[in-house]
Amino acid sequence: MVLFSIVISAVFAAAFASPRPGADVAVVVWPFGPASRAAEVIAAAEGSIVMPSRLGWIIIAQAERPDFVAALYGAGALVVFDPRVAAGCLSGG
Questions:
Q1: In this model, does residue 37 exceed pLDDT 80?
Q2: Domains of the chain
C-alpha cells in the first residue's frame, strides 16, 4: 500500500510539474463560463490550441514561451497539467 501511494504521488507530481517550453499542456477553465473561455485564456497567454477535448472547458495547448504555464494562470486558467495523464478522458474532441 505504501508503494502504491508513492507511485501515485510521483505520477501526480510529474503531471503538474511545469512542462518544458513547447510541450503540450491541458488547460482547465471554469466549466460554467462561456464556451470560448478556454480559447480566450490560451490566446491571452500567447499560446495556440493543439486539440480541443470533448469537454469544452479543457483544451490542449502549447507555446514556446518559457513562462507559458504562469501566463495561463495569469489569464485565468484554473489548472494546467500534462495532458497525457488524462488522455482517455480528453480524446474525442
A1: yes
A2: 2-90 (3.30.70)
